[in-house]
Design a protein that fits this description.
single chain; mainly alpha; binds zinc ion
Length: about 90
């Protein structure tokens, strides 16, 4: 059970399942849009803390998306996003 052997005090959730650079690149948009699940967000941030390349990549993505106006963060008000989430939940539970 390597998951226990590697466990240390205050070990963050993602420590047993580190996120590779490749996966980080795939989910970076979700991270920036705030749609990444909590567990992946933790793994994402842990990876960033240890990987200067991905930190630079994230900064670049942030700037690019902002300039391109494709990031919904500033465009969609918090209320609207919450409405969308509720529609999604209702739809999934139907
Ligand atoms: Zn990386």
């Amino acid at each position: 059970m390597s998951i226990f052997r590697r466990r240390r005090r205050n070990t963050p959730a993602g420590a047993a399942n580190p996120m590779p650079c490749r996966e980080l690149v795939q989910v970076v948009t979700g991270y920036l849009e705030g749609t990444l699940p909590e567990v992946d967000r933790v793994r994402f941030e842990e990876h960033l803390a240890a990987c200067p390349h991905c930190t630079a990549y994230l900064d670049q993505m942030r700037t690019t998306l902002r300039l391109a106006g494709r990031l919904t963060e500033d465009d969609i008000p918090e209320d609207t996003r919450e409405d969308l989430l509720q529609v999604y939940r209702a739809w999934k539970s139907a």
